Queue: 2 jobs
Job 1
Amino acid sequence: MGNKWEKCVVTEPKIIDVFAAHAPGKYQILMDGELVPGADFFVAGGIHHKIYQAEPITEKHYHNESEAYLFISKPGDAEIELELDDEVYTATSPCAVYIPPGVKHTYRYKRIDGPLTVVAIVQSGKYLPITD
């Protein structure tokens, strides 16, 4: 068996303490151009439990690339308030959000009653938020 594609399998995510435009905390990076040379996706994710969040998890920012959020749980276990440009939406999990390039966005958890898996995917090998 060869090792041709072994570099494409990430078995040890990066844990970072500082994540540009985000609230302080531990963040798990599952894929980026550093973990997988040549990767054109940035993927971060984790599992949250029982939380209410008064302030957004991120500064309002945008990317020059598309982004998607996946909020995965049992039906109704979480409510997420999303701000996309100047519009505010409340989504109930499980749900997904597509954010086109250039759309300013942020979100906060209004409620999490059970385990919520969150995955953020940016169509770039680096996470480059723009906050101007």
Note: The mean pLDDT is 92.
Job 2
Amino acid sequence: MKYIRISLFFALVMSLVLSISSPAIAAEEGSCGLDATWRFEDGTLTVSGKGLVTDICWYEFHNRILKVVVEPGIINLPNNAFQDCEFLTEVILPDGFTLIGSFAFHNCNSLGTVQLPATLGHIGQHAFSNSGITGITIPGSVERIGTSAFDNCEKLLRVTVEEGVTYIGASAFHGCKKLAEITLPDSLKIIENKAFESCSSLQSIVLPQHVTVISAQAFQGCNSLASVTLSPKTTTIDYNAFAQCYALRSISLPPTVQTIQGLSSALEEIHISDLTAWCTAEHSYKNHCLQNAGLYLNGELLTDLRIPDDCNAISAHAFSHYGKLKSVTMPEGFTSIGDYAFQNCHSLQSVSLPCSLRRIGDSAFAHATNLKSIEYGGSFNDLKKVEINGGNDALWNNYLQVSTPETTTFSVYYYMVILALACLLQLGVLIACLVIYIRQRKYPFL
């Protein structure tokens, strides 16, 4: 009798469990737009109809969604559509689909690969951030990749960006630690700040010809990046663009570069083809790229620097911390040395300054501890006209040779007057002697 009661109780409990769970097993459905509907069944959420999806009505199932199927006719997924669906593994999008909203697949940790249709026009910010995707091809119909669209996709191995894409947003692939392969199209024009920051497995990058600006921190922390090919039209390497790229030992800069603020201090070789371009480019006070590197002009290591005749100024920090520099010669017509231009050039021994020089900037030669010879092409009066700012004690603590004597109008006039007076004095003495001689002859008329 006791066993019969236990069996009846167990059967009653099971019937209650089945009655409670049966609604979850059954299909759920509803409307999610003017002409759009959704249906959830057996782990698959299907979006059907046509036009825009405007409502998210399936969030209560987000921990049970394994697959998403968007049927032809639906053109978008709204913001946050499947955010935090941590068990979602597969997404199928149809031809004609155009828009993935912001945070649409954010935190979908189990998501593997997604085939994006050729009609897709927009990927919103954080659309796939923190997701588990392993590879992605961005179709050319997507003109702009949104901010942080694939941020911290730590399983992402490869990215192919097809022809037609022009813009990669800020932090678009930031923190994709396993990203080792990326192909960029010729149509690409802009790579925003931190776009590939901390992609620590990326080994090489070829930047298309229209990418003229390497934005701030674009490749910062890419520890394995060993090869960079810049566009021949590059104008700007912004702040910390290649900071902490410890594997990057050599880089070639085109003569079009006007701003150099973000080269790695781990560089061993910097190759240039235009010395004037390097001298006049804007250099950051934090960019110590020459600290360990040699500067090569057309393959020749620069140790004895001769400023080109067409260069009349050196910009601030241009040769700061350059340890391989031994001598500097500036041509006549050169006018200005920028602030900190030769700061911490510990191997610098001699400098030749032209008479045309008009300004020596703050600490231009600070800590040039081995500077022994300074030759100035003008006179001391010319030197007085040169603006010499503070922090340049090395100029005076070492031998300063002025090669040209005083030739000013005043000094020439002065010497001519002295010479004339001397002549008059000699003439007076001669006349006096003549008078005395005549008197001694006793000429009465004297």
Note: The mean pLDDT is 88.
